[in-house]
Amino acid sequence: MMEFRDLKTQYHTYKKEIDSAIQEVLEGAHFIGGKQVGELEEQLARYVGVKHCISCGNGTEAMTLVLMAWGIGEGDAVFVPDFTFFSTGEVVSFRGATPVFVDVDRDTFNIDPNSLEKAIMKTVEEERLTPKAIIPVDLFGLPADYEKIEKIAKKYGLLVLEDGAQGFGGSMNGKRACSFGDAATTSFFPAKPLGCYGDGGAIFTDDDELAELIQSLKVHGKGTHKYDNVRIGVNSRLDTIQAAVLKVKLKAFIDHELSDINKVYRQYNERLSSIVETPVIPEGYYSSFAQYTIKLKSKRQRDYLQAKLKEYGIPSMIYYAKPMHKQRAFEEYDYDDKEFPVANELSDIVLSLPIHPYMGEDEVMAVTKVIKMVLNGDNVI
Ligand SMILES: *Cc1c(COP(=O)(O)O)cnc(C)c1O
User: Which one of 39, 109, 145, 376 is least enclosed by Cβ atoms within 10 Å?
Assistant: First the structure.
């Protein structure tokens, strides 16, 4: 069976470096807050192009910490794309605020600026919630439309938190993902563009005050030290072993992985663009391809193709089978299904194919061959 995202080959390529980086942590026995954590944060901040990088437990807590620092809570509205991983909306509800879901752009899968402005105006008119922030997501590796989003945010006085969990490495007009908005977050979950060997996450910002507050919140609301507690916080840290692994992986990511995965994207597009709807990367944008997602003609065709791929030993995933507004956890908010035509359609027709920097052209061909064969024989088209 082909790997959906091949973490084993990556490990074997860098086994020597990774093993010795982990060994060094074991010998030093400084498992929390070892020097590798600070070194990694510095490298990440420099790569992204922001003043502060603060590592933490995972991508979900990274967002929670920012919302906590901003004091977002009950009675506040936070605008979130309807088509994303659950976490983006979950953190809003977790803080007691209300996620207002917004339909997405059919080409980019990202939050649609027009629908965003409509949702903000409607929330303002209703006077039930106070609009506070927008959390655009860089879905599948492609940065959201920050030019338009930041304009809208300014117009309505809203904060912007970039959910760059899938976006690390992407860019827009040369500006790197995780540098947009007032703060940005990412995840180092193993299968993300830059992954560690467990859970991990980080927050990025140019805002000194925000950075200082988050440094406190992530360590039990510490004051001058860990046992001087000045506010209620959480415990959310990236451990030293993960930081050591990430230092090796960041170098590989910058050296070749990002360009290699883009090579795979082009090989796929060349073979598939005349048969299915392939990913659209707008002018000036660069994707880190957390996923390579195609669109089929119908749910029936999508499900049929996925079953056939499986028969041939090719894994594929449906990201996401259910838009946020349909998740039972958000039932209480009573969203109007008619407001999300694009997210509803996408959830029926998307299919993510295997992609990773270590995928060879022979594997790409193996996947596209099955797709061509299956779709040519499917008289639904
Ligand atoms: C993975 C992911 C998260 C959460 O990251 P974790 O590290 O798993 O908590 C948040 N948002 C998006 C879009 C993600 O893909």
Answer: 376
Question: Atom 7, ligand 1: which residue's CA is nearest?
Answer: 59
Asked if the structure places residue 1 within a domain, the reply is no
Give the DSSP H or E segment for 183: strand 183-187
State the residue range of the domain holding 335. Answer: 256-376
- Where a domain ends, among 248, 270, 298? 248
Give tens-digit pLDDT for 52-85: 999 999 999 999 999 999 999 999 999 999 999 9
11 in a structural domain = yes
Whether the pLDDT of residue 381 is over 90: the answer is: no
- Ligand 1, residue 290: give the atom nearest the CA: 15
Lowest mean pLDDT among 11-20, 97-106, 369-378: 369-378
> Same domain, yes or no, for 160 and 307?
no
Is there a domain that residue 186 lies in? yes
Domains of the chain: total: 2
Q: What residue has token string 């660069």?
A: 286
DSSP H or E segment with residue 26: helix 15-28
Each residue of 103-125: pLDDT tens digit?
999 999 999 999 999 999 999 99
Cis ω on the peptide bond leading into residue 14 (within 30° of 0)? no
Model confidence over 228-257: pLDDT tens digits?
999 999 999 999 999 999 999 999 999 999
Residue 350's CATH number? 3.90.1150.10
Binding site membership of 187 for ligand 1 (Cβ less than 6 Å):
yes
pTM: 0.97
User: 81 and 177: one domain?
Assistant: yes
Backbone angles phi, psi at 142, to 5 degrees: -100, 125
Q: Is 134 helix (H, G, I), strand (E, B) or coil?
A: strand
10 lines ligand 1 (CB under 6 A): no
For a ligand 1 pocket test, name from 67, 88, 137 the mutation site with the most ligand atoms within 8 angstroms of its C-beta.
Answer: 88
Pocket residue to mutate for ligand 1, from 109, 166, 287, 291, most atoms within 8 A of Cβ: 166
End-to-end CA distance of the chain: 28
